[in-house]
Amino acid sequence: MKLNIQARAKINWTLDVVGVLPNGYHDLDMLMQSVTLCDEMTIEDAETCTLSVSAQDGTLVPADGTNLVLRAAAALQRETGCTRGAKMTLKKYIPVAAGMGGGSSDAAAALVGLNHLWGLKLSMDDLERIGLGIGADVPFCIRGGLQRAQGVGERLTPIALHHDLHLVAFQPCLGLSTKEVFTALHEDGILDSDRPDNEAAQSALIAGDAAALGRAMGNVLEPVSRRMRPQLDEAIRAIEASGACGARMTGSGSAVFGVYSDAKACERAAAELAKRYPTCRMITTAPCGVVIEEV
Question: Could you tell me which CATH class the domain 166-284 is placed in?
């Protein structure tokens, strides 16, 4: 059996830090969304687990035991005692260190795909539990769609999205370290004016109201990341000037995105922004995080 898998990227409509958990991690409250931008993975039977990786932008991505795909495969084997292998090939289109969940989505795709290939019949809850041991965003990337994510991101509440939303997204500068961004946030603190309105953003998403969503979006990590990467400020302002209803950084950066009132407005903006930011692309919201096709 051979599987073709789409590992979809994510964006944060909102990201707020509401406290500190007993284990010392930040207590988050976020609205997370799968989008159509994706990495492509193939998985087929083999004697051992191997991985080859290529990135569209030429970024060197390790294919050794530090890669979350191989860590996911090893975790699944430990959990189930399965000794089967798999040949895994990964083509990366999601930018690296961008806050779009690239590594986490790849790990999610490996867990879901290998569960299918090896006939393990683990539930979604089981896969999410295993995934949490690999990375905080992995449970979301397994489930995908639109979720209210709390805790470190593992407490997921699905939200029905009845209307496709149209976005542009790109990475205008070098990537950022999530650890460094959170360390700087701890030192700087959070202003109330930087916090998103999660309830208003959730209501706007349910209603498909891009204008109201744009007003409610926010990311408390953005001021810190903007200071580390001044290009973020310039890029966000460029997206706003292109007619977006709202523009923000996703995750801890360094990718930015904008949401538009309709597909035509988004398409025009993407074409204009691509003249200045060649990696800019138009994407849409997606209902799930992993898509599998048997070939």
Answer: alpha beta
